[in-house]
Design a protein that fits this description.
Blueprint: H1 2-6, H2 10-21, H3 25-43, H4 48-55, H5 60-71, H6 75-83, H7 88-92, H8 103-112
Helix pairs in contact: 3-4, 3-8
Keywords: DNA-binding, Transcription, Transcription regulation
Pfam family, one: HTH_18
Protein name: Helix-turn-helix transcriptional regulator
Length: about 110
């Protein structure tokens, strides 16, 4: 669908995207979904299952796996640390730092996947 919207072939879209962002479209979208999920965990009382559904991942166990791989902590542990009042800086310091995303980008990409 992205290739249709952009007017590029899927192969050209993937190659151009990889050149610009040093990752595939799927890797980029996964990263954005994880960033959104981290915000939901921090700022809402939604259950992990509700968050998984909202970000468009089909399996809660897969979500936990990729969240843990990306941030070095399970989503349930991340939320527990936040609720216990642990400094967000001490949690985030162990997480890879990404550049700031505009939520409009996230929504557009999630809608088109």
């Amino acid at each position: 669908m992205l290739s249709r919207k952009s007017g590029l072939s899927p192969k050209k879209l993937q190659l151009g995207f990889k050149l610009l962002y040093s990752k595939t479209v799927n890797e980029y979208v996964r990263q954005l979904k994880l960033e959104v999920s981290r915000d939901y965990l921090k700022n809402t009382d939604l259950t992990i299952s509700e968050i998984v559904y909202l970000i468009g991942i089909k399996s809660r166990s897969y979500f936990s796996k990729i969240f843990s791989e990306a941030y070095g902590i399970l989503p349930t542990e991340y939320r527990r640390h936040l609720k216990c009042g642990e400094s967000i800086n001490s949690i985030v310091n162990s997480m890879p730092q990404g550049h700031i995303r505009v939520y409009i980008q996230v929504i557009i990409i999630i809608v088109f996947i």
